[in-house]
Amino acid sequence: MYRNSFLFSVLFLLTGMLHAQKEITLEDIFVKASFRTKSVAGFNFMLDGRHYSAQKTGTILRYDITTGQVTDTLFTARNFAGLEGFSGDLEGYTFSLDESKMLIESEGEPVYRYSSKVKCHVYDRTTKQWQAIFPEGKIVNPTFSPDGRKVAFVFENDLYTATLASGKIDKITTDGKKNAIINGMSDWVYEEEFGFTRAYWWSPDSRQIAFLRFDESEVPEFTMQMYNDDMYPENRTFKYPKVGEKNASVSVFTHSLISGATKKISLPTPEEYIPRVKWAEDKVCVFSLNRHQNHLQLYLYSPDKNVVSLLYEEKNNYYIDITDDLTFLADGKRFVWSSEKEGYNQLYLIGMDGRQIAKITPGKYDVTALYGVDEKRGKVYFQAAAASPMVKSVFSVNLDGSKLLQLSPGMEGTSGAQFSSTFDYYTLTYSTINTAPVYTVFTVSGDKVRTIEDNASYAQKMEEYAVSPARFFSFTTSEQVQLNGWMITPPQFDPAKKYPVFLTQYSGPGSQQVTDAWKGSSYWWHQLIASQGYIVACVDGRGTGARGEQFKKMSYLQLGHYETLDQIETAKYLASLSYVDGSRIGIFGWSYGGFMSSLCILKGNDVFKAAIAVAPVTSWKWYDSVYTERYMRTLAENEKGYADNSPVYFADRLKGNYLLVHGLADDNVHFQHSAEMAKALIKANKQFETYFYPNRNHGIYGDNATIHLYTKMTQFIKEKI
Q: Alpha carbon of 52 to those of 25, 66, 78, 146, 720: distances in Å?
């Protein structure tokens, strides 16, 4: 059904839409949050498999999974306000493994995009004891030891443990120093590009901790200025390795909490990156990745014997995406692993000798998430785009690859799951592009238990406003590539008229925008644009995900080349439709999408009338080493690839209307990108519009920045497209 073109019969159906009773406003979307969907905040399955906990207005409650009834109040924040420095503001919580204790986080303060400093307290549910972990200051990434007796954390770049019974603090490392040495916490580029902030790991027996040490002394620094009504702006300087520059030197250690000894793990063939570390019972598994990111080696280290051996290795003609899809089985003889080695991301059962035992997922489709391995039942649970790149479903399969079963039958949208620790129950989150998420509990046998949240009021809300359903379409390019997209037409659409088009996209490697899944606030902004008489459309071009390795890695060494061709082809295809005004097509994107919208209005200056670029990359030589070199290698190795596809080198081609937006405190895509773009446009004597946001990062939010930006972009669309 998703491969059919956008037929006139479907378009005529849209003319029957109900007349709007209410007008969608930017304030409704971005200030009042009138369209925010309901979810289950702080949802956690509990050990018994029959209960879950959830956070609600300063309390943590326990619910019966089968009835939804509250069975206990586990924590009430106001009861502890003022004790041991606790503000009473509950921001997050985790249980100890046996659930006898709770780690309570408050007063979070961002470090980078995902990391934060917090105040941390522990509540003992048995003794009712309440204690501060580290009264000297805010800490990073606190976690319980598996036995629940200690908490490890990072403070000022050093790794510590706190013994709960005595309150004793032990400092594991002593050389931590800002912009020099980091212990137990990721540096900027690892956090951003390898997706983890906590760089230490407890052993299952709580006797040891493995951790990473980052020596970033020789990594070049980047400085941003913050404007705080002071005489001079505040300079914020941090280490940021750009393309071809020196990365942090990363090493992995183990520390014994019994002997106090710290040992460095010496790998036989050390590579550039250590993107993952995991425990395999009493051994440490270390991922070692070369700088080109196309050769991955998994090593096993025995702390007792101080011996390292190669467990598994993989090579790729392009690059290897690092994931957490590694599960060691209890028998100590096998592990579950994901790989693209056969052209699609699939799951495999591998022996501890590194040899493949079985292919677990029997098909040519991409596995998009691994939820867990139920060894008792011999099952693996995962999500995959099996039916279509736009549809993701939840499945179970035997470890030997037999008895594949869809756990979300009849659901053609997107399903995701969270399983209880016993795998007796799972919550299924289901949505479509036009349907808000529904959270439902099932037994492992597939029987529906109950719905936790159905967002039932949302359907009524959509009827109250000028909502036109998003519809999927596909078309074939001049290069005989089939591309998928979605489209929203104006309310009371008339195919006899001609409409301007607002094209939105992201287009980055492995990303997807064209999925049958709920889009959140962007859905309502697109509805607002459509209500102003525009067709809003989105197409995933080559380089995007869930269509196999060849489609995704088509852009290797030439980011922006095929993606731009496909967005230009999209505009030409839309212009060929009888109801589209081909002289009024604009394109928008943020981050990689801003890179793309910039390239499109420059290289496609005969197709696009306008473009909005928010926080765009304008030359890959100014972006970070890990991300850019994964897809482009270094500038020295691939000078042509950089030169041919960086917007800053094509500024003289601008003909249409261009809005360039950036946050001055963007630690990810630095304001340097937009400053250099503006310089190039001025040199070419090209007129453009620009908005900049002091003290705002890559997301451009806070202090009315969001509503301010979307007001400008909406006005720009109405005036320039």
A: 37, 10, 22, 20, 51
Query: For 199-220, what is each residue's pLDDT tens digit?
Result: 999 999 999 999 999 999 999 9
Model pTM score: 0.94
Helix (H) or strand (E) holding 456: helix 456-464
- Summary mean pLDDT of the chain: 95
Share of residues in the chain with pLDDT > 90 (%): 92
SS3 105: strand
Q: Which two tokens stand for residue 508?
A: 């980055």
Separation between Cα atoms, residue 103 and residue 84, nearest integer Å: 14
Contact assessment for residue 165 and residue 156, using Cβ atoms and an 8 Å cutoff: no
At residue 80, φ and ψ (nearest 5 deg) are -115, 5
* E strand map for 69-134: 70-76, 92-95, 101-110, 116-124, 130-132
N-terminal to C-terminal alpha carbon distance within the chain: 32
Residue 566 to residues 446, 538, 627: CA-CA distances in angstroms? Answer: 41, 11, 22
Quick: pLDDT tens for 36-72: 998 877 788 999 988 999 998 899 999 998 898 999 9
1/157: higher pLDDT: 157
Q: Which helix (H) or strand (E) segment is 575 a member of? A: helix 561-576
- Reported as a single tens digit per residue, the pLDDT across 455-505 is 988 888 888 997 999 999 999 999 999 999 999 999 999 999 999 999 999
Q: How far apart are CA 179 and CA 181, in angstroms?
A: 7
User: b or e along 46-77 (b: 16 or more beta carbons within 10 Å of the residue's beta carbon)?
Assistant: beebbbbbbbeeebbbbbebeeeeeeeebbeb
**Angstrom distance (rounded) from CA 656 to CA 612:** 11
CA angle 278–348–331, rounded 5-degree value: 55
183: nearest Cα among 199, 169, 197, 171: 199
Run of H or E residues at 716: helix 705-720
How far is it, in rounded angstroms, from Cα 618 to Cα 626? 17
Question: 60 is written with which tokens?
Answer: 């943590």
Find the farthest-apart pair of alpha carbons in the chain and give their distance in angstroms, rounded. Answer: 80
Place of tokens 């604009």: 586
* Token reading at 93: 């919580």
Distance, CA of 338 to CA of 349 (rounded, Å): 9
Q: Give 104-157 pLDDT, tens digit per residue.
A: 999 999 999 999 999 999 999 999 999 999 999 999 999 999 999 999 999 999
Give the DSSP H or E segment for 627: helix 625-632
Angle at 26 between CA 23 and CA 27, to 5 degrees: 95
Q: How many CB atoms lie within 10 A of CB 362?
A: 13
| CB neighbour class for 2 (10 Å; exposed up to 12, middle 13-18, buried from 19) | middle
Q: Would you state the pLDDT for residue 80? A: 96
